[in-house]
């Protein structure tokens, strides 16, 4: 018996971006765990970990996992961790850091928190085989700038517009060779009007910030405008 899951378009895209085999996938800030459950059903990793800081959410999730995945002999295992993602128990589950590969998903939280969580994980586990799939809500430029400063490289990136909101989804790793761009690179498809609109809205957002004193964003605006100017129709 399987748990019926209706994934948002954003979570569907994140699911589709996971194409390699992993020993451990961590659905961090999982909330109801819809993404992790989808990954568990399709056995995307040997172990799918569900991580959230709210006990009530995880108790419910654990009951559902026990009910739907407890009795069946599954190839994939699951684990529930009620903790701050800053304290991800990688060392506890990974016996061989050089060999075990981990995919850490952090989606649906703000960019500043995303940076804080990735920073905490990298500070302890940068010698592990880590990949990150990140989909921050806002502050994409700052997240990208941070990832570049920590020498991560790009595996792939996607831009999704859902309910008039843009989501940048970044799959990155320490050993990936392609550089990460602060304003995005392969995700843009300017033959799609919604991508062009998202870029224009992003520029307008920084232009509003530039009007406030103490906010030095002219370099950011220039970089986004360069993308816009590279389009023949603009
Ligand atoms: C909006 S939900 C995101 C759900 C899902 N990841 C998505 O993309 O739709 C945010 C979740 O992050 C959890 N959260 C926030 N800060 C956290 C932290 N430091 N450690 C673990 N979970 C956290 C909240 O409890 C909440 O369930």
SSE topology:
Elements: H1 9-16, E1 22-28, H2 34-41, E2 45-52, H3 55-69, E3 77-82, H4 90-93, E4 101-110, H5 111-125, E5 129-137, H6 140-149, E6 153-162, E7 165-173, H7 193-210, H8 218-229
Parallel strand pairs: 1-2, 1-4, 2-3, 4-5
Antiparallel strand pairs: 5-7, 6-7
Helix pairs in contact: 1-2, 5-6, 7-8
The structure holds S-adenosylmethionine (SAM).
Residues 11, 29-31, 51-54, 57, 84-85, 107-109, 113 line the site of S-adenosylmethionine (SAM).
Overview of this structure, please?
The protein has 234 residues and is of the alpha/beta class. The protein folds into two domains: 9-187, Rossmann fold (3-Layer(aba) Sandwich), CATH 3.40.50; 188-234, no CATH class. The chain contains eight helices and seven strands; from the N terminus they run H-E-H-E-H-E-H-E-H-E-H-E-E-H-H. The protein has helices at 9-16, 34-41, 55-69, 90-93, 111-125, 140-149, 193-210, 218-229, and strands at 22-28, 45-52, 77-82, 101-110, 129-137, 153-162, 165-173. Strands 3-2-1-4-5-7-6 form a seven-stranded mixed sheet, sandwiched between helices. Helix 1 packs across helix 2, helix 5 (111-125) packs parallel to helix 6 and helix 7 (193-210) packs antiparallel against helix 8. The longest helix has 18 residues, at 193-210. The protein is globular. S-adenosylmethionine (SAM) binds next to strand 2 and strand 4.
* SSE arrangement, N to C: HEHEHEHEHEHEEHH
User: Which fold name is given in CATH as the topology of the largest domain?
Assistant: Rossmann fold
Give the overall silhouette: globular
Question: Helical amount among residues, as a percent range?
Answer: 25-40%
Euclidean distance between termini CA atoms? 53 Å
Which secondary-structure class do the elements indicate? Answer: alpha/beta
Number of strands: 7
| Largest sheet report | 7 strands, mixed
* Alpha carbon gyration radius: 19 Å
Small molecules bound in the structure, each named once: S-adenosylmethionine
């Amino acid at each position: 018996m399987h748990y019926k899951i209706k994934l948002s378009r954003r979570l569907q895209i994140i699911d589709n971006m996971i194409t390699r085999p992993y020993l451990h996938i961590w659905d961090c800030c999982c909330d109801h765990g819809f993404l992790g459950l989808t990954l568990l059903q399709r056995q995307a990793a040997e172990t799918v970990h569900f991580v959230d800081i709210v006990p009530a959410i995880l108790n419910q999730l654990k009951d559902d996992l026990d009910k739907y995945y407890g009795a069946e002999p599954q190839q994939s295992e699951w684990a529930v961790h009620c903790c701050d993602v800053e304290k991800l128990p990688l060392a506890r589950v990974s016996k061989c850091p050089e060999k075990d590969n981990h995919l850490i998903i952090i989606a649906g939280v703000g960019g500043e928190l995303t940076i804080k969580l990735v920073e905490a994980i990298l500070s302890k586990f940068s010698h592990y085989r880590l990949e990150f799939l990140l989909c921050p809500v806002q502050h994409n430029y700052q997240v990208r700038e941070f990832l570049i400063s920590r020498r991560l490289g790009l595996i792939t990136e996607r831009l999704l517009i859902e309910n008039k909101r843009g989501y940048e989804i970044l799959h990155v790793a320490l050993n990936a060779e392609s550089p990460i761009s602060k304003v995005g690179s392969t995700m843009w498809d300017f033959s799609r009007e919604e991508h062009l609109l998202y870029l224009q809205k992003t520029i307008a957002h920084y232009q509003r910030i530039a009007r406030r004193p103490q906010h030095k964003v002219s370099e950011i605006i220039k970089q986004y405008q360069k993308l816009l100017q590279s389009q023949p129709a603009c």
